[in-house]
């Protein structure tokens, strides 16, 4: 009887959770510029023109917080993804002596780095005694020279960690890590690895 009631309770929860997931939402706040970013930008020796294309990622829904690994309980949104990626790219480039200058779709520059976003997922998993916030981003990075593609790099990074919770703060930390490390991957692929000589 007890086993039957437990099974019935779990079945009801598995039915109700997807419905409730439409009612509960976690909207991750905008990334906060780290201390010293303004100073890094002021000390930069060169400017790196960047264009970010969001493609099909115009919707801000990115994933779920899950109960027992498989039951979606609340939706996760990242309404400022484009701005957040630009910020973390600015941090990575600033550490190498470059300031980021965003350029428009039709704006021409001798050299432009383009990030064409393909996918982003942000999820929090409940593993009973530990939580696992994760964020995975993928995009195609291209370098243009006078309008012609001279190099392409498929970029993907998955940030995950064991945590006591998988709420807004932990999900935000995973997202920040994914954006920052994928930015470093982009710079490495294009061999933007050294501070330019003055």
Can you walk through the features of this model?
This protein has 198 residues and is an alpha/beta fold. The protein has one domain (2-189): Double Stranded RNA Binding Domain, CATH 3.30.160. It is 32% helix and 37% strand. It has 4 helices and 8 strands. It has helices at 2-21, 37-43, 81-94, 168-189; strands at 25-27, 46-53, 61-67, 71-77, 98-102, 111-126, 131-145, 148-160. Strands 1, 2, 3, 4, 5, 6, 7 and 8 form an 8-stranded mixed beta sheet that branches. Helix 3 packs across helix 4 (168-189). The longest helix is centred in the C-terminal third of the chain and has 22 residues, at 168-189. The radius of gyration is 20 Å and the shape is elongated. It starts with a helix and ends in a 9-residue tail after the last helix. 28% of the residues are buried.
Low-confidence region ranges: 8-23
Query: Which structural class fits the helix and strand makeup?
Result: alpha/beta
* Tally of DSSP helical segments: 4
- Percent strand: 35-45%
Shape descriptor reads elongated
**Do you know the CATH topology?**
Double Stranded RNA Binding Domain
What is the CATH architecture descriptor? 2-Layer Sandwich
What is the CATH C level class, in words? Alpha Beta
Characteristics:
single chain; 8 strands; alpha/beta; Double Stranded RNA Binding Domain; 198 residues; eight-stranded mixed β-sheet
Write the layout of secondary structure elements.
Elements: H1 2-21, E1 25-27, H2 37-43, E2 46-53, E3 61-67, E4 71-77, H3 81-94, E5 98-102, E6 111-126, E7 131-145, E8 148-160, H4 168-189
Parallel strand pairs: 1-4, 2-5, 2-6, 3-6
Antiparallel strand pairs: 3-4, 6-7, 7-8
Helix pairs in contact: 3-4
């Amino acid at each position: 009887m007890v086993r039957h009631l437990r099974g019935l309770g779990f079945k009801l929860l598995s039915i109700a959770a997807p419905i409730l997931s439409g009612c509960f939402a976690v909207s991750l706040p905008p990334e906060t510029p780290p201390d010293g970013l303004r100073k890094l930008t002021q000390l930069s020796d060169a400017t790196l023109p960047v264009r970010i294309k969001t493609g099909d990622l115009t919707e801000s829904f990115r994933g779920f917080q899950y109960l027992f690994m498989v039951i979606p309980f609340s939706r996760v949104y990242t309404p400022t993804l484009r701005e957040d990626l630009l910020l973390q790219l600015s941090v990575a480039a600033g550490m190498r002596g470059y300031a980021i200058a965003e350029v428009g779709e039709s704006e021409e520059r001798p050299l432009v780095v383009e990030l064409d976003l393909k996918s982003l997922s942000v999820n929090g998993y409940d593993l009973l005694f530990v939580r696992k916030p994760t964020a995975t981003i993928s995009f195609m990075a291209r370098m243009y020279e006078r309008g012609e593609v001279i190099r392409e790099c498929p970029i993907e990074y998955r940030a995950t960690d064991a945590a006591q919770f998988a709420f807004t703060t932990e999900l935000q930390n995973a997202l920040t890590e994914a954006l920052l490390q994928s930015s470093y991957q982009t710079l490495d692929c294009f061999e933007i690895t050294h501070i330019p000589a003055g």
